[in-house]
Amino acid sequence: MPKLTVEDLKKIREKTRRTTMLREGGEHRAKITVHMGTCGIASGARDIMNALIKEIEARDITDVILTNSGCAGLCSREPMATVEMAGKAPVKYVDLTAEKIKEVLEKHVLGGKIVESYALGIGSEKTDLS
Amino acid sequence: MEEKEKAYRLHLMVCAGTGCVSNHAFEIKGALEKEIKKQSLENEVLVVTTGCNGFCERGPLLVVQPGNIFYQQLTEKDIPHLVEEHFLKGRPVQKLMYTPPKEKTPIPVLSDIDFFKGQVLIALRNRGLIDPEKIEEYIARDGYTAMAKALNEMTPEGIIEEIKKSGLRGRGGAGFPTGVKWEYVRNAPSTNGGVKYLVCNGDEGDPGAFMDRSILEADPHSVIEGMVIGAKAIGASEGFVYVRNEYPLALSRLNLALKQAREYGLLGKDILGSGFNFDIKVHRGAGAFVCGEETALLHSLEGRLGEPRPRPPYPAEKGLRDQPTCINNVETWANVPVIISRGANWYSSIGTKTSKGTKVFSLVGKINNTGLVEVPMGISLKEIIYNIGGGIPEGKEFKAVQTGGPSGGCIPKEKIDLPIDFESLTEAGSMMGSGGMVVMDEDTCMVDVARYFLSFTQDESCGKCTPCREGTKAMLSILTRITEGKGTEGDLVLLRDLAESIKDSALCGLGNTAPNPVLTTMQYFMEEYETHIKDKKCPARVCRQLNTYIVDENTCVKDGRGCDLCKRNCATDAILGEKGKAHRVVQEKCIKCGVCYDVCNFNAVKIE
Amino acid sequence: MVNVTLDGKKIQVEEGTTILQAADKLDVKIPTLCYHPLLDPYAACRVCVVEASVKGKTDLVTSCNTKVLEGMEVKTASERALKARKLNVEMLMAQAPAAEPVKEIAKELGITKTRFEIKDPNEKCILCGLCVRTCTDVVGAEAISFIERGKDRTVAPPFNEPSEACIGCTACAYFCPTQAIVFEDKYGREIIHDELHLGPVTAIRVPIRQAVPMVPFIDKDACIHFKTEQCKLCEKVCEPEAINHAMEDEVMEIDVGSIIIATGYDIFDAKKNAVYGYGRLDNVLSGLDFERLCNAGGPTGGNILLKDGRKPESVAILHCVGSRDRNYNEWCSRVCCMYAMKFAHLVREKTGAKVHEFYIDIRAFGKGYEEFYNRLMEEDVIFIRGKGAEVTDVAETPEEEGKLVVVCEDTLLGLVRRVPVDMVLLGNGLEPRRDADEIARKFNIGCSHEGFFLERHPKLGPVHTASDGIFLAGACQGPKDIPDTVAQAGAAASEAMAMADRGTFELEPITSFINEELCGACKTCVALCPYTAITFDEEKNVSVVEEALCKGCGTCVAACPAGAATQHGFDDEEMFAEIEGALSVV
Amino acid sequence: MDSANFEPRIVGFLCRWCSYTGADLAGTSRMKYPPNLVPIRVMCSGRVDPTFVIKALKEGADGVLIAGCHPGDCHYTSGNFRTLGRYTLLQIMLEQLGVEKGRVKLEWVSASEGDKWARVVKEITEEVRKLGALNWDGVVEQTKQEVAECADEKVKI
Is B463 on the interface with C (CB under 8 A)? Predict the structure, then answer.
């Protein structure tokens, strides 16, 4: 094991930023919620989630929170995901596929431009954890 | 180290402090992992073990990040449901969440819970957030930056100045200013070519205190980092952590942390390229309370009998192997890195005029939220007990709180607004001690409390000096006499004389403080003593020898229909009566064991 | 220097002085229990607490370990100090009620009774730790320590079992202020007679009480320092700093002109002959034991006492123990008859006890000896002609109960007798020293087959030996009494003086020499020479005879294969001529 | 020769310290013993070179007595032990030569043993008398023959 220098310490910190952010709810660019109710899972939400995880890892994105939630109530348009850019209203995407969600990640999350063709709408009903 | 960090959407922070572990936290963890695998979530959800979360009352605990969702009192049975509902389907499970007493709605988010709300985390800054067995996670939370700063950018004098300015005082009990101690050690001449030692006192002997254990379990690197900074300040190249062997988890995590730190070059030769050398050895203590006393600890560390020696010379002058030695408590060391990285000014902005920063207390006894809390100095007892602690269970009335471990004093409810700092506690006849806080309700007999603590100190007295060895024995026998109804009024005079004399003339801190429970209870609850002696009654009905057990014949017949249970359980045939008829106690035969009272299902047995 | 006020009195003391030491200077008495001036203060008994104020801060401190500070004001008997002191003493009274020092301090403090519970009224140990500290810090044996803690604390060796670490120095008992530690002889022997052999003596002592010069020495075998490398207490207390443990035994080489050997004798070890019961039965003493017993500087101050301290009523004295005995030593030891009779006289004079002498025959050969023998008979000493055959404690008759019985054949009466007595004194014979052989080899002198050194000639050279310049004196040459020894020693001294005075000595003209041309360098002669007179000259590659050492035995000459070694007066030709001459006479 | 009338000639090598003094004592004690022995004084019996014995036999002696101090009593500490060693070897040699065993003897006689000296001389005289005169020339002749035979055999081999 090489002996560390002060720079190495910094590097380790950079590398583990994603964990830090996730656990401490620190500064993040966006939060992507994949709706994973029974309906969502049945329509392939797991693929969406896996694709997202893979992509985030591949691109080494450290400032995006990925989470899931229950059924969003629009079972017919599953799989769905909500992208919530920091300080902006959430955007719901519907009828997703792995390809589509990658595009959303690319254009919306990283590029800042809403992919309107997949979007259901902007805004959300008041979420209640119950 | 992996090249790229794996991405997970959920981190499940399983509390693996000793409290939760003994509540089967590891089984919970196993069940979680199994279930996650079953649901094929292993690439999305990560299970992390953390150190003690603090809310031990409610263990085993699980915090889900992101979201800070707090699950408590988990059982293995709950896991499949939890995994499916929350982690797979995203629906947090309400019934596993915390509901405050007297309320009905559960609080899902940890930071919204009263217990956590009032706390300010400095020493416990990483609790529940990192896996203590992974040094990377500590580094990720800015770990070892303070050390880097101290080693590369600061002079020893600068470090000492910073610590002095911060107002940090020893968290082991006496509250000696840490910076001043460091300065003494730095300036003390060493007879052995400049060798000085650094010791971390982890011999947490108080039966009700577990903050040192918790820190070592949850965040061992913070102690290591603090010690390296201290070593640089005083010029030591060798450090010791004295941990009692009753803390196996703390020991194994500490040893692992030391190994990792050494591998990373954060300990050993030329740390971070600064040219500074320092290493730490772990010494296991055999669990004698007196070894928490610094001179006794040093004796034990040298392999000798753990008994204190007179001071001066203080260890700062002549400590381990007769060389200047700096001894600080685990909590003190854990505070050091934060002060260095965030600055003395920030630290000294927390707390009161004389007591800066925060203090960790272990809140135990008759209180709803048992656990470990870190609060800013100056917070009132009331806030701790009612806001953080959630008050007294079963709606009973608060009577007193005993602070500072077995040799601290009892503070009565009249003083509940007392701000917690070193001076106020001492003034009230108690002390900060290591931070034990035992809450007592109306059902507590203060004479019995004094007797209980005395029996502890008597057992733990090393026996070296007469006042402590013989005095605690004498005081205990008087107190026992009183609780058995054999006390006389002369006993109270002798008891006070003894207590004062022992406090005055004992050799070490153990003896000096051992009379505190007696003195404070005599000061605040004298009438209880008098009732015990004059009326031969225990108002709290704790001292059984003073109780008179009688059967309320009405209740016995009406509610219990003369169930005969008491008679059958009475060891001395002191209860007369037949099934279906009223029973009564023959007082001459009664040995006051209280079994009838305990077994009666109809509250027909009364105490007079 | 530091200025302090102690009970109102001002005093200036050196820095580092403790309050106790300062008080001592002012003759202010502070009671102590766990303090000992030779050990580091322990501050455990808390009896020496005093009230000390410095810079307006007043505290109760233990005076034994607290060092005085400039401007310190000490009150040794303030109300606060007294209260703590009294309570501590009172508690100790309950803990160790039999401890005398505690009682004394209590008396001084006016405490008559303890209010605390007494567990063991016979307890003496006050747990002051002096023994433990002595064993650890002074002795360095670390054989005892405190075990358990608090109220259960006691002093014990590891696991409460006899410890191998204990070197048996008894220092712990010595330091114990309350006699809570006592030591006893491993074999259960009691004092009086054991002092003769191993009674309690200190490691520093004078060799014997009438020693000249009267200078103490350190017994290396007994001194703690040489066992554990610690202690050195004697160095601390010796003001003139006369003690030096680092001093080593020194081997000195002294050049002298002549040597007188006066190595004396060994006493016959009566244990060899089990019938006497020596070392097995109490009150059977050897001649030397008895000498020590009745010595005024001895263990009993010269009183002749039995082991249990009683005066003997009857004493038997056995002659010829180990002498005139084919099983042991055949010779007469010459001195025993007379010293045995002296014993009889001493016993009669000091105790009036009945004395029986068991003898083969009385050898009173010297001047006034026979008269002494006659006097003893007038002193009612009973002489029984017959060698003591056995000493036993097995009684056959009631009057023999509890007595020693000497069995012998009374040759005058022709009876086997059993004589019951209280004490048996043995007239041990004299023997050559055990190491006489070694000495003989070293000095190239002979020993007779018994082991006494051989004089050159029994009549003509009674103090000379075969080696010139080496003389004999005393019992090393043969058993002798003191007058004979003195006479022989005088003769030896004058012979030695005469030789030294002459400054030279004559060689007999019979020494050997080596013909260098013939010497084949085989070194046979070098090994043969009993006087190491032949050395080998490596340079010349020949053997060389040092004539001053050569005694002319000619062994080398006879052995030399090259005929190089020759002897003056006895060379081969001369010898051949002598043979021829001797045989030519018809 | 009639053995009864034969007067053997014996050479004695006496150590100066014990045996010679012992002989002296026998003399001063007026002890009677045969006059056949001619004493030769040496400092120590250890000086007695085996050649002395051969020389004496050659010059006409019928027997040889070597006398020294008792073992352990040697004036020169260990000379008599050397004598004993040499004597033992000499005995073997003489036997090979054909000289009877009783002709050469070693005895320990101390200074105080005048009587022993007298006895020893008596014994050896009687023994040698029985053996008769020593035919040294015969011994030499025979030895020469044996040597020659050996030499021949050696050539044959």
Answer: yes
Judge: A19–B140 Cβ closer than 8 Å, yes or no: yes
Q: How far is CA B209 from CA B53, B58, B403, B436, in A?
A: 15, 17, 10, 5
DSSP single-letter state for residue B546: G
Residue A70's CATH number:
3.40.30.10
Torsion angle, alpha carbons of D55, D59, D63, D67, to 10: -50
The parent domain of residue C466 ranges over: 432-502
Encode pLDDT of C200-239 as tens digits.
567 787 776 667 788 888 888 878 888 888 888 888 888 8
Q: Look at residues C47, C187, C51 and name the one whose alpha carbon lies nearest to residue C128.
A: C47
For the CA atoms of chain B, what is the radius of gyration? 27
What one-character DSSP code corresponds to residue C255?
-
**Which domain-ending residue is among C376, C410, C431?**
C431
CA atoms within 13 A of residue B550's CA, in its CB half-sphere: 6
> C583, C584, C585, C586: which to substitute to probe chain D, counting the most D Cβ within 10 Å?
C583
CB C464 within 8 A of CB C457: yes
pLDDT band at C87 (very low <50, low <70, confident <90, very high): very high
Residues of chain A with pLDDT > 90, as a percent, come to 0
Strands (E), C252-381: 259-261, 265-267, 284-285, 314-321, 354-359
Q: What is the CATH number of the domain that holds C541?
A: 3.30.70.20
The model's pLDDT over B531-542, given as tens digits with 9 standing for 90+, comes to 999 999 899 888
Residues C225 and C140 in one domain: yes
Say how far apart CA D53 and CA D11 lie, in whole Å.
Answer: 8
The count of structural domains within chain B is 4
Give alpha helix (H) positions in B461-563.
Answer: 466, 472-483, 489-505, 509-513, 516-524, 526-530, 553-558
pTM above 0.80, yes or no: no
Candidates B445, B457, B454, B451; CA nearest to B366 is: B445
pLDDT higher than 50, residue C196: no
Domain count, chain C: 5
Within a domain: C571: yes
CA distance to B107, B370, C204, C293, per residue, from B104 (Å): 9, 20, 87, 99
In a domain, A66, yes or no: yes
Examine residue C114 and state whether it is found in any structural domain, yes or no. no
Q: Is A53 on the interface with B (CB under 8 A)?
A: yes
Contact at 8 Å (CB) between C40 and C28?
Answer: no
How far, rounded to the nearest angstrom, does the alpha carbon of residue A71 sit from its chain's CA centroid?
16
CATH of the domain at B602: 3.30.70.20
B132: nearest Cα among B220, B52, B197: B220
Q: Is A66–B7 a contact, with Cβ atoms under 8 angstroms apart?
A: yes
The interface pTM score, or ipTM, of the predicted complex is: 0.73
Q: Do C481 and C536 fall into the same domain? A: no
Hey, is the C-beta of B302 within 8 angstroms of any chain C C-beta?
no
Positive or negative CA dihedral for A69, A70, A73, A79?
Answer: positive
Q: Is the dihedral of CA A4, A9, A15, A20 positive or negative?
A: positive
**CATH number assigned to the domain comprising residue B92:** 3.40.30.10
Domain match, B588 and B501 both: no
The top-level CATH class assigned to D8-152 is alpha beta
C-alpha closest to that of C575 among C557, C549, C550, C556: C557
**Residue found under tokens 């300040």:** B233
Range of the domain at A39: 27-85+99-111
Residues of C in contact with B461 (CB under 8 A): 149-151
Residue A38's closest chain B neighbor by CA? B89
Mutation target among D47, D87, D106 for the C interface, most CBs of C within 10 A:
D47
The pLDDT value given to residue C154: 92
Residues on chain D touching C563 (C-beta within 8 angstroms): none
The radius of gyration computed from the CA coordinates of chain C, to the nearest angstrom, equals 36
Alpha carbons C293 and C284: distance in angstroms, whole number: 12
